Each structure stands twice: as structure tokens, then as C-alpha cells.
């Protein structure tokens, strides 16, 4: 008798769901089936609490919504899938749950038209497909806990179809996507710092015909419904003016770890079967030197502490062009302290001291160049204003002579005062 009454109740409920004539503006399905919400679920007479644990969703082609979630009922895991059409009139639900006796049940049905706190439908038993179908319904429980503030940022990713090298006139396709613990509200795609596309969904595509040659950057920023933002990694891609390959480039700087008192030498070499027409060096997006040969050097600075961006481009004689990617150089501030290191040269080759110089590395990081000084007319040198720490001193020359330093390098500990007589023999 109880089962007959349940079936009659559910039949009336289904008629109410499907044939309701007064359709009002409905709550979005992702707000009805929100993460953390609980429902009292009755499956063929077995009652338990249905917990919605979370998942993901997004807009469909017709402007509707589809979503998938993990759920728990009778302490057993399950899944939920739900769909809303483009007008948000029909809201369909499919639950895959497991009863206490282990029997798996599929519940198919709809969310009520006049309330967002009731859903119902028919049950199917995958293990016993020939059985008579049953019925289910769920009533939303009123939340007794305060709303938890969402502070988690979306996880955002970006990718470009194909390789990251193009020819002017090619079409680039960029895809951005995001995942969030609640819901992604929108994704913005940026190219070279300019906003080019906004999508109010968890996925976003952008395509354009490439006309500007040279290196470019793209990234994406996703925002969730609570205003939390997450940025993707930055992708760099190159656009060449023609399909002809440009010169092969090798670049370097001296010194390798500059500080805010160093002058920096930028060095570039290029090679190509047809010959190299020109090399251009750029610093912070400004061309600073062009050389009409296969080798180019530019000395600049000192530069203030911080980041400096430099790159090189080269043209071949047959029209090929190579645009080098941006190189970011970190220029360290020169820390001032109370230590000093001084010394002189001696020995049979002391008269040649003027063609030698002392390179100072440190403090503590013996690969970190600090400054370089030449020996004076008396064969002496002195470094001042040094912070405490260990330093490496290297004596070297650019002259092609038979005389050399002994030893050529020394490690010195500086502890707040002068360190003298750090001498080198030339012989």
C-alpha cells in the first residue's frame, strides 16, 4: 500500500513538472545544484541524505548549461549530470547512486518549474534492466550553516594550436580554459598586453590573422563568481615576414651577472648560407645598434637595479629574417659596506701590471660579478665599500703576452674592516 501511494504521489509530481502552464523566470541550474547543498533523496522508498560534492560545468552552444558533479548518498559515492536548455525552461537531472544493499540505480528526472527545491523522476536498475521501473524524488534541505566565503582562485591554462612559429598572414588559434572550486564566471585572453577576447564560460577560443612580425606574448586571466582571479602562464610565439629561414643567432653578455655599477657588453653573432645582411640589438624594445656584418657588439650602462629586457634580430642577404626572443636580465643592486680589499703585483713581470686587471666576485656567491679594476701605475688595486662575506679575486689580461699571474685567483674573507696585502706575482 505504501509503494502504491508513493507511485501516485510521484505521478502527480511529474505531471506538475512537465505540464505546468505558468512558467516564470527560473533560477539557474548551477545555483540550484550548488556545491555543498544537501537533499533528502527517496529512491524506491529508501531515504537518505544526498550531498553534492562539486564538479564542473559550462555553457552549451544554445546558451544553456551542462554540469557534472560528484555526489554521496547512503555513504556511497555517485555522480550527477544536469542540463538546462538555452531558455532555462527545462532542467533535466540524472543521478547514479547506490543503495545500502549495493544495488546501483540510475535516477532520471526534472527539477520542478515552480520551485527550485524539488526534483523527481523514474528509476532504472542497470543490473536488472527487465524489472519494472520505479520512482524517486528529492527535496532540498534548508542550509543551517553560514555561507563559506570563496577565496580560491581559478586554475587557468592557455595553449596555441600547432608550433609557436608563424609566417605573416598565418592564422593563430588560442584556447584558454579554467577550473574553479565553485564556478568560472569569465575568461579574458590577452595578446601583447591587449585584451582581445572575453568569454563568460570556463573555456574561451580566439583566432586572428597575424600581420605584425616579430615576437609576441599571450596569456589568459580567469575570474570566478566571487571575484577571485587566476592567471595562466605566458606563451611566446614568433611571426616571420616570409617563410624563408633567417640567420642562426648566438648571443651573450659580459659580465654574466652584472650589477648597477657595471657597463654591459651585448654580443651577437649570425650565420646564413647566403650571408648576413645586418644584425640589430634591442634594449627595452628600442634598437640601440645595427651592424651590417655577421658580428655586432654594443656596450651600455651602467643600468639601474632591476630587470632589463634585450633581444637581437638578424637579416640574411636572401631576405630571411630572424627575430630573437626577449631575454630578461636581472641587474643586482651594488650593496655598500665597510670592508675593503687591496693589494699589489710583484715579481719579474711587475712592470707589465698596467695591462692586467682584477675581477671581484661576491659576496658569498662566487659567480656573482661585482666590479673590475685595473692596476694603477704603481701596480696597486683597491676595492672599497664591500659588505661582509667571501670574495673571489681573479687577475686576467686581454694582452697576448708570456707573463701571467701566480696565483691567478684568490678567495678572501672580509669581516667589517680592511683586508690588505692580497698580492699577486707576475712572472
TrEMBL record:
It comes from the Bacteria. Pfam families: Big_7. The keyword Ubl conjugation does not apply. InterPro entries: Ig-like_fold. Keywords: Signal. Residues 1-25 form the signal peptide. SUPFAM superfamilies: Hypothetical protein PA1324. This is Secreted protein.
Amino acid at each position: 500500500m505504501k509503494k502504491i501511494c508513493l507511485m501516485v504521489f510521484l505521478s502527480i509530481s511529474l505531471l506538475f513538472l512537465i505540464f505546468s502552464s505558468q512558467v516564470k523566470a527560473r533560477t539557474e541550474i548551477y545555483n540550484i545544484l550548488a556545491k555543498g547543498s544537501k537533499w533528502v533523496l527517496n529512491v524506491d522508498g529508501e531515504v537518505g541524505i544526498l550531498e553534492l560534492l562539486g564538479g564542473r560545468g559550462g555553457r552549451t552552444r544554445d546558451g544553456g548549461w551542462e554540469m557534472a558533479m560528484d555526489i554521496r548518498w547512503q555513504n556511497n559515492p555517485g555522480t550527477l549530470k544536469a542540463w538546462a536548455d538555452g531558455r532555462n525552461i527545462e532542467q533535466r537531472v540524472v543521478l547514479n547512486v547506490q543503495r545500502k544493499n549495493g544495488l546501483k540505480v540510475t535516477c532520471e528526472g526534472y527539477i520542478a518549474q515552480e520551485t527550485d527545491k524539488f526534483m523527481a523522476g523514474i528509476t532504472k536498475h542497470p543490473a536488472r534492466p527487465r524489472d519494472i521501473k520505479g520512482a524517486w524524488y528529492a527535496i532540498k534541505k534548508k542550509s543551517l550553516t553560514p555561507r563559506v566565503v570563496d577565496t580560491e582562485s581559478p586554475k587557468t591554462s592557455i595553449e596555441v594550436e600547432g608550433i609557436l612559429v608563424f609566417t605573416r598572414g598565418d592564422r593563430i588559434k588560442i584556447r584558454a580554459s579554467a577550473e574553479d572550486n565553485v564556478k568560472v564566471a569569465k575568461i579574458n585572453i590577452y595578446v601583447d598586453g591587449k585584451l582581445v577576447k572575453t568569454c563568460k564560460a570556463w573555456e574561451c577560443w580566439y583566432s586572428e590573422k597575424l600581420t605584425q612580425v616579430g615576437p609576441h606574448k599571450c596569456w589568459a586571466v580567469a575570474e570566478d563568481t566571487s571575484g577571485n582571479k587566476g592567471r595562466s602562464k605566458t606563451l611566446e610565439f614568433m611571426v616571420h615576414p616570409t617563410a624563408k629561414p633567417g640567420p642562426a643567432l648566438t648571443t651573450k653578455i659580459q659580465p654574466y651577472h652584472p650589477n648597477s655599477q657595471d657597463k654591459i657588453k651585448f654580443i651577437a653573432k649570425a650565420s646564413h648560407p647566403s650571408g648576413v645582411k645586418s644584425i640589430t640589438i634591442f634594449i627595452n624594445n628600442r634598437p640601440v645598434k645595427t651592424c651590417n656584418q655577421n658580428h655586432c657588439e654594443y656596450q651600455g650602462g651602467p643600468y639601474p637595479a632591476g630587470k632589463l629586457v634585450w633581444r637581437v634580430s638578424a637579416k640574411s642577404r636572401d631576405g630571411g629574417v630572424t627575430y630573437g626572443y626577449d631575454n630578461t636580465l636581472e641587474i643586482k643592486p651594488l650593496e655598500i659596506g665597510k670592508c675593503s680589499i687591496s693589494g699589489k703585483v710583484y715579481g719579474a713581470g711587475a712592470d707589465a701590471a698596467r695591462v692586467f686587471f682584477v675581477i671581484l666576485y661576491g659576496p658569498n656567491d662566487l659567480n656573482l660579478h661585482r666590479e673590475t679594476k685595473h692596476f694603477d701605475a704603481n701596480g696597486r688595486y683597491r676595492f672599497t665599500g664591500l659588505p661582509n662575506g667571501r670574495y673571489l679575486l681573479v687577475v686576467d689580461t686581454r694582452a697576448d703576452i708570456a707573463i701571467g699571474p701566480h696565483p691567478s685567483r684568490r678567495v678572501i674573507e672580509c669581516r667589517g674592516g680592511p683586508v690588505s696585502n692580497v698580492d699577486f706575482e707576475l712572472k
